[in-house]
Design goal:
418 residues, mainly alpha, two-stranded parallel sheet, 2 strands
């Protein structure tokens, strides 16, 4: 029997070695398997073992959660694969997306100045590219996120006009998420530019959140608190973090009602709604209060959605820093998400509530709170789950909520198995 030629032997050997790999190879049109960036690469990254330190990355999403997202996307699992594709195909992920910074963002109420829209959208684009970097490991996305942030930190000086505080909160909360992730995962953001971005957040954003908004609709206060807490973690500012926590504790019970509050809702902290008549006026004329009703429910569900999202963002970031704000508001938030989801899904509302005709305009605001209640605590919230599934993959409200099916759907973090 003739001996096989060396080339034939080599061919057979390669085939045998590659067979297990080829059996599990993705199809030709599948995306490249995500490559994990090092989420602890920078020397200034701190961990929970450092006395008094913050855990990084730890604004809205944790390292464990991002690792799980990467694995799910790589496996083509749902709903993460569809959520990732929706994000990647969005205008915010475009390779040619260009920043539009201005020195002064002037936002008048009930107007839509171009600079205000540009600031919010550029922040969402930075967050989008930061997430793309975290999932794919493609440095071009990291460079893009940093480029957008550098463009604004080199120009912006102030926010003005009547909506300055709310505008700064919407953009500031998103900037802080993007900056936190990039600072603690990417080695290509020069320290001097990081410091410049920190300076921008401290001097062109935080001052706007000190505005007196006690008598404004509560989504303002909660969104400002969301931004303050996020920026505090990014800046490693414990005093600022503690002030935001105190603000959360004062406002959430004054926004979402429980029967245990008494016959009337808790008055807003520091406000003038300090009598039964004024409280009812503040709650858009409501005289009947049920578990889960929000201060703006009879205005529209859209603004309640902002408040729900901001409340969840605050509690989620605090959770990553070892502070369990969720426990303090669990029953209140369970009632709120279930009551609003039930009616958003079509259950008729009694006439004594919002005249029986609520404006059912809730946006993509449930994923973070749903994840905690359902996947960490095992608390049943069937209406919220149904509504979230109907909305998936949740995109962005173009204000301060973006891609939360991707980041938080069935994603409890460390120790979670769902």
């Amino acid at each position: 029997m003739p001996r096989p030629r060396p080339r034939a032997v080599l061919s057979l050997l390669c085939t045998a070695l590659l067979a297990p790999v080829l059996a599990f190879a993705p199809p030709r049109d599948a995306p490249e398997p995500p490559r994990a960036p090092d989420l602890g690469a920078r020397d200034d990254a701190q961990g929970p073992d450092d006395a008094g330190a913050f855990t990084h990355p730890g604004v809205l999403v944790s390292r464990d959660q991002l690792d799980r997202v990467r694995r799910k996307v790589r496996a083509g699992a749902e709903p993460w694969a569809s959520a990732f594709q929706a994000m990647r195909k969005s205008r915010y992920a475009a390779d040619d997306y260009t920043a539009r910074p201005v020195a002064v963002v002037a936002c008048k109420p009930y107007a839509k100045p171009a600079a205000c829209t540009a600031e919010r959208e550029d922040a969402i684009a930075a967050w989008t590219h930061a997430l793309l970097w975290a999932v794919t490991g493609d440095r071009s996305h990291a460079e893009h996120a940093v480029r957008l942030m550098d463009a604004w930190s080199g120009v912006l000086k102030d926010h003005t006009e009547g909506n300055a505080g709310l505008q700064a909160a919407w953009a500031g909360s998103t900037w802080a998420r993007a900056a936190e992730l990039m600072k603690h995962s990417y080695d290509g953001w020069p320290d001097a530019r990081v410091k410049r971005f920190e300076h921008m957040l401290r001097h062109a954003y935080l001052g706007e959140f000190d505005a007196e908004v006690a008598d404004y609709n509560g989504n303002w206060d909660l969104t400002m608190t969301d931004a303050t807490l996020a920026i505090a973690v990014f800046l490693d500012d414990r005093a600022l973090f503690d002030r935001a926590v105190a603000r959360f504790r004062a406002r959430v019970p004054a926004y979402f009602y429980l029967r245990t509050d008494g016959p009337l809702p808790v008055p807003p902290p520091g406000g003038t709604a300090d009598s039964p008549q004024k409280i009812r006026e503040y709650w858009f004329g409501q005289r009947t209060f049920v578990d889960g009703l929000g201060q703006e429910s009879c205005r529209n569900f859209e603004h309640v959605g902002y408040a729900l999202a901001a409340t969840a963002h605050i509690a989620e970031t605090a959770h990553h820093q070892g502070v369990d704000l969720y426990a303090e508001v669990r029953d209140r938030m369970r009632a709120a998400v279930e009551w609003h989801a039930r009616h958003q899904l079509g259950e008729p509302m009694p006439k004594q509530l919002c005249g029986g005709k609520p404006e059912l305009t809730m946006g993509p605001d449930l994923e973070v709170m749903l994840n905690h209640l359902q996947n960490r605590l095992g608390v049943p919230v069937p209406n919220a789950e149904r509504l979230a599934e109907r909305m998936r993959p949740a995109g962005t409200d173009d204000l301060f909520v973006a891609w939360e099916t991707l980041t938080h759907a069935r994603n409890p973090g460390a120790g979670g198995t769902t």
